[in-house]
Amino acid sequence: MPKSGLNSHDPGGLIHRHSRSRATVAISRIGDFKGSAFSIGGSKEMNFRSLEEFWAFYVSQHSKPSTRRWHFAGTLSSIVLFIYSLLFNWWFLVFVPVCGYGLAWYSHFFVERNVPATFGHPFWSLLCDFRMFGLMLTGKMDREIKRLGKRPILQGF
Question: Where are the transmembrane segments (predicted)?
Fold first, then answer.
């Protein structure tokens, strides 16, 4: 890729990186994220032998407290929407994954700057998300991070 432009169709560099939206830039850089479970641009995928082994990786991909808070908000919103849809209006089921994954993926692309583990391991990621939600709800997530040998990063939301 030439430095002057985005691609070989722009040899004079008329199209600049600044002209693209932030979402486009984030999505186009997916292959560049460090420590990701799945690389869209390449063929890198990690294999795990157990859910516990995946859990350690999952926690490492949620190293920033703000990422975990976005996940918590997404999971809580999804649970509330799911209950609402069961009690009042089935059409709200559509918003359950949109809200849950939307907030979680936002945190990965723009806060943590990595690729969601959901792309490579959707079922295990969902299970680990609920596990992280439960640990955060009970105030035990920081202890779990320390148990796994990861120190929580102190930062503001």
Answer: 70-103, 123-141
